[in-house]
Specification:
The chain is mainly alpha-helical. It is 67% helix and 0% strand. The model has no long low-confidence stretch (mean pLDDT 81).
């Protein structure tokens, strides 16, 4: 019995046998809108036959189609907000990338300016402060 529970525990909390596949991305908004339209069309097509469905105990078919259409409206709202959030995040990432690239170019320009040697204020000997230059520190 203990082996059963340890095996069950391992199966429930263990690592999966394979990695999860990448999510499918496509025209999500159009798919949900299309599905919602289909649910409402099915409801409207069955509505004239309500008595026939009710007599045979299948009135739930109509209400299932109506519920599918109603939930489809929630789905449309959800996927439109999700799509907008994804686009905002992509735009923000592109802006960060452009900003990083611009700051990298500015840093490269500063490095080029640092590479140019200028004479000290005291002249070519570099002894303006009275300290000996590194070449005369023998």
């Amino acid at each position: 019995m203990a082996a059963f529970f340890s095996d069950l525990s391992r199966r429930l909390t263990g690592t999966p046998k394979h990695e999860a596949p990448e999510p499918l991305e496509g025209p999500v908004v159009a798919t949900i809108v299309g599905g919602t339209i289909i649910w409402f069309v099915l409801f409207l097509v069955q509505l004239p036959f309500y008595g026939w469905f009710d007599d045979r105990g299948h009135a739930w078919w109509l209400w299932t189609c109506l519920a599918g259409g109603g939930l489809g409206f929630i789905g449309i709202w959800y996927v439109r907000r999700r799509d907008a959030a994804i686009k905002r995040e992509q735009a923000a990432a592109a802006a960060r990338t452009a900003e990083t690239a611009a700051s990298g170019e500015a840093a490269e320009g500063m490095e080029g300016a640092e590479g140019v040697e200028t004479e000290p204020a005291g002249g070519p000997s570099g002894t303006s402060s009275g300290a000996p230059s590194p070449s005369s520190a023998d």
